[in-house]
Amino acid sequence: MSTSSARKRLRFDHTESEVANGQSRVRVTLTLGEQIFRAEASEPEEGIGPLKAAALATLTAVQAAAGERFTCSLADLDHVKALGKDLIAVLVDFTFQGRDVQVFGSCQIAGGEIDCAVKAALNATNRMFELAMRE
């Protein structure tokens, strides 16, 4: 992979999370080369939890990094077991160039589940991000 194509993919840097008054808040930091993109999200409704907050923050950061060339929203997130592995799986709805598409992303749980939710969202969005950045 060439250096120029490697720069077109957003990379996970780190997360920070806290719970206050029973509500999760997650801050996500992504990088694109030397550029840094941060976003944060709280649970949009009670009971959603930090995994969805992490995915929502990731999508906000991805849209900002893409210069709002598309919109995306979290359709679903689930902790699943597939092929004997524990995964975080996400479905993301995109609107890009007048078309609506839904993409899937996943990450095998190894370490923190919050970080895994961010990586699953990046797994789904980086393909669309690369496509949008070519335009």
In short, what is this structure?
By secondary structure, the chain is of the alpha+beta class. The protein contains three helices and six strands.
Please outline the helices and strands:
Blueprint: H1 3-6, E1 11-20, E2 23-32, E3 35-42, H2 50-65, E4 71-82, E5 85-96, E6 99-108, H3 113-134
Antiparallel strand pairs: 1-2, 2-3, 4-5, 5-6
Helix pairs in contact: 2-3
Highest-level CATH class: Alpha Beta
N/C terminus separation: 20 Å
Q: What is the string of SSEs from the N terminus onward?
A: HEEEHEEEH
> CATH-wise, what's the superfamily?
Alpha-isopropylmalate synthase LeuA, regulatory domain
Spatial strand order of the main sheet: 1-2-3
Rg is 14 Å
User: How many independent structural domains?
Assistant: 1
> Could you say what the CATH architecture is?
2-Layer Sandwich
What is the approximate shape? globular
CATH-assigned fold name: Double Stranded RNA Binding Domain
Mean pLDDT: 89
Number of helices: 3
Helical percentage: 25-40%
Question: Strand share of the residues?
Answer: over 45%
Structural class: alpha+beta
Low-confidence segments, given as residue ranges, are 1-6
What's the total number of strands? 6
Largest sheet, described in full?
A: 3 strands, antiparallel
